[in-house]
Amino acid sequence: MTEPLIYTIKGNIPISSLDYSAVWLDTADFIKLTETYRLEGEIVKESVHIYMKRALESTIEQGIFG
Amino acid sequence: MANTQGISGVAKQAALGAIVDSKTLKGALYLVSATTGPTNTVYTATGEVSGTGYTAAGASVTNANAAGLTSTTAYWTPSAAITWTTVTLSTAFDAVMIYSTTDTNRNIGVFTIGSTTVTAGNLTINMPTNDSSTGLVRFA
User: Fold this and answer.
1) ipTM of model over 0.85
2) Among A51, B7, B40, B86, which one is most buried in terms of CB atoms within 10 A?
3) How far is B37 from chain A (nearest CA, A)?
4) Measured between alpha carbons, how far is residue A15 from residues A2, A40, A44, A58 in Å?
5) Closest residue of chain A to B97, computed from CA coordinates
6) Across-strand partners of B125?
């Protein structure tokens, strides 16, 4: 069976030759998943997935009669 | 029962709808070193990221939602994730501006996403549930 290749800045490389890591970051504003592939320590592919958690909320104020 | 004062929900919905309903929207990314924010009136190229696969002025924002209303809170959220596919953005960025090309690039909002780089990969900004408690833009 042919080994799957993955697109990187070094071209298409067998996925088995890369070190994969996934880092989750959970903040009040967003959740971020960063997927990193390294070749001999160098980052050759990195994708980021973000889930927005906090809205921009604007409160509309009502004045009073002067 | 006593009377109550307050701006009506339908007025808030109309105000929000005036800037998002049926508008053509885009999302642009900004470097950590930039000073983009709510005081920007329109899209700016100043401080925008650049890199392989990234087109200046950003990506399209899918906008099939109209401003909604629950009780007295108006809300709106893009109807799909904003995505950049196979890009390399080596200089860290941390914000996305959603703006309306329909209204001469009016800035709708700037959202921070933490310092981020992408290398020969994808950037996907997924949206929360479009309702009055989690919608991306809310007039309360």
Assistant:
1) yes
2) B40
3) 12
4) 11, 13, 11, 46
5) A56
6) A50, B82
Query: Could B120 and A46 be called an inter-chain contact, meaning their C-beta atoms sit closer than 8 Å?
Result: yes
Closest chain A residue by Cα to residue B108: A56
Nearest to A58 among B117, B119, B139 (CB): B139
Q: Which residues of B touch A56 (CB under 8 A)?
A: 109, 111, 136-138
Phi, psi at A16, each rounded to 5°: -70, -15
DSSP 8-class letter at B71: T
Domains of chain B by residue range: 9-139
Rounded Cα distance, B108 and B140, in Å: 16
Q: What's the pTM value of the predicted model, to 2 decimals?
A: 0.93
User: Can you give the pLDDT of all 140 residues of chain B as single tens digits?
Assistant: 899 999 999 999 999 999 999 999 999 999 999 999 999 999 999 999 999 999 999 999 999 999 999 999 999 999 999 999 999 999 999 999 999 999 999 999 999 999 999 999 999 999 999 999 999 999 99
Measured in degrees and rounded to the nearest 5, phi and psi for residue B135 equal -55, 150
